[in-house]
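As a warm-up, study this chain.
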Amino acid sequence: MIVDERMVTYIRSLERPENPVIEAIEQEALDSFVPIIRKETQSFLKVMMLMNRPARVLEVGTAVGFSAILMSEYLPEGSHITTIENYEKRIPIARNNFKRAGKEEQITLIEGDALEVMKTLEGPYDFIFMDAAKGQYIHYMPEAVRLLSDGGILMSDNVLQDGDIIESRFAVERRNRTIHSRMRDYLYELKHSDVLETSIIHWETVWHSALRRKKKRRRIDKMRNRHPELLIPASSLEVLKTAVMFGADAVYIGGEAFGLRAKAKNFSMEDMKDGVRFAHDHGARVHVTVNILAHNDDLEGAAEYLKELKEIGPDALIIADPAIFMLAKEICPEIERHVSTQANNTNYGTFNFWWNLGAKRVVTARELSLKEIKEIRAHIPEEMEIESFIHGAMCISYSGRCLLSNFFTGRDANQGACTHPCRWKYSVVEETRPGEYMPVYENERGTYIFNSKDLCMIEHIPEMIDAGIDSFKIEGRMKTALYVATVARTYRKAIDDYLEDPKKYEANMRGTRIRFQIVPIVSSRQDFILENQVKKARFMTVIRISESTHILVS
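Now compare it with the structure written out below.
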């Protein structure tokens, strides 16, 4: 988000309170995580009502009725607002709010799809406020122009998408690219219209006409059909490129300090810069781990490190320590902050705690069931994202906070120096029977008391999507390019198959086999042939080991 948070805080501090009913409705909406217009938009709306004194107002997107009630307070006597809402769960709330505010006669709510309703309306309207599905603005525009009076005003909220609009479509999350493209078309049409004179105002200013929420409004019942992010680990620039080329929506990497994989190859600042550039050029995101549990001596260095990351511009920081979280919020607020599984995120109260501090995403604790994740999704804001591990080694102890390494070897796992003692072989000695060593046996499900078998959730992708998980995370920042390519390609294909057709996913899951074939590459022609082989294969991938050798995996 391209904002100055200190400036926004100062501007908001200047606002005077509204009447108690409006304030109560606003607070109820915030408590229920219903997106409503920001304080800056509220101020601008009030000024527009008083300056233009519209007799007839049309609002596209009622939500819980807050903005309609706010506008009605500043309209001249005898004026009327017509508002349109299609989300059935919010309609009765809005009607009740209109009644509480004594606005039933002044505000008319029409239920239904906005575009279809607008076609039935007769103008003219002196003021039209559009605050609905952003991807539909371009479709609403002809009807809005038809309904607008001569000299009337059309105000559209959040058209700059908090700065995303200036990014390349390949730098925008795949699921947001349609909105990104349509909004660019909408802004072009507004600025090049023969009948409209348009001003686009950034919301960092005192008043604005074009910005509101951080992300588009999403309904929980539609989240089941979204495309989840496939998040792949990368230990080096080479592995990052492999992950991106084999289907990662995003990769997570570590720098040379302040991460929990100190023994991994990790990224220099120069490699990190190249990696971010490569990922963005190919439509992928980069998340950087800053997830140590810091001591006093770490804080000064962490601040300097965050300043360097600010210059590089990754898409997100994965953070476990509250002190580092607040440093990141202060130093590089434009970079998303994701809360690591190391923070023990086991309930929706914790998720809301981090959301209120400015987190965009929280990684679930490894102990959570899908049922618990579903419950979290039902109790957190729609815009908040959930990330969960779906494949790889799961550290023993609570959310990976391992104490064994520090106890046995003096190397702190929570400082990135884990010796993996959970993978050593152990025997148990009972205190009354010294010298009698009973080995800890393992079956197909693991040892139970020590390290579990590696997680593999590929057969549970439908349930994980249904649970409302936004990002599927693969463990393995110390893994090779071969591992990353194989896992990325396999999960990419499985996710895409399911979203295309669940029956296709089920059929491919039943028939999946893994085999390896070494293929020498001597010409670009053979590269082309291999590429086409991959397209025809079910779960086939091509992995470059050197300039002269590829590995086919199917």
